[in-house]
Amino acid sequence: MLEHSKNNYRRVVAMSTVHRLFFALWPCPSLSARIGAVSDGLGALDHRVANDRLHLTLAMGSDSPGFRQEAAEMMLALADRVDAAPISLKLERLAGTEHSLALQPRRRCAPLGALARALAEPLARCNLMRADWQFSPHVTLGHRKQTPFTRAISPIAWDAREFVLIHSIVGREYIELGRWPLVSRQWDLFATEPPPVPVPQGALAA
Predict the structure, then answer these.
(1) Which residues of 82-116 are buried (b: 16+ CB within 10 A; e: fewer)?
(2) Per residue in 65-91, pLDDT tens?
(3) pTM
């Protein structure tokens, strides 16, 4: 069972009514610094994402007014079943929408898409997926109003070796609930497979 009683949890949970669970690739500190350095040349931002909060979202659960213990347990269980090798990608493009700035890969990365699907499809079957969310690989740097644009940057190589499950208390804090290595685990014919992800009646309808 997930222990949800850490000191920082008790402090922040009561401060917000919007909670979100999501899977992500999380860069190491040195890579976060390289990604964050791109923001230095972008001028004023209404909000800049701190280096230790930079990430690439793989699958996102629906928002809720409180922490959903059962949903978190299910997401932990499905992550335990993921079989995916390390992923190598390059962030090669800076893209600005009308309200945000992000780094993106320029080329499609098949292993990255496969990992995202392996996490998102079970979430959708269990009615845990955020309805308006679709996978579009990017790392958000910050927010401001601007005219949309896209331009190339010097490539930033990212060799992802693990993924995480995060509880976001929106606008306040990220709390890591689990971390898994990206190591291909081929179950042999005589191995005991891990138990299936539990799906209670009603599938945790939002």
Answers:
(1) bebeebebbbbbbbbeeebbbbbbeeebeebeebb
(2) 989 899 999 999 999 999 999 999 999
(3) 0.81
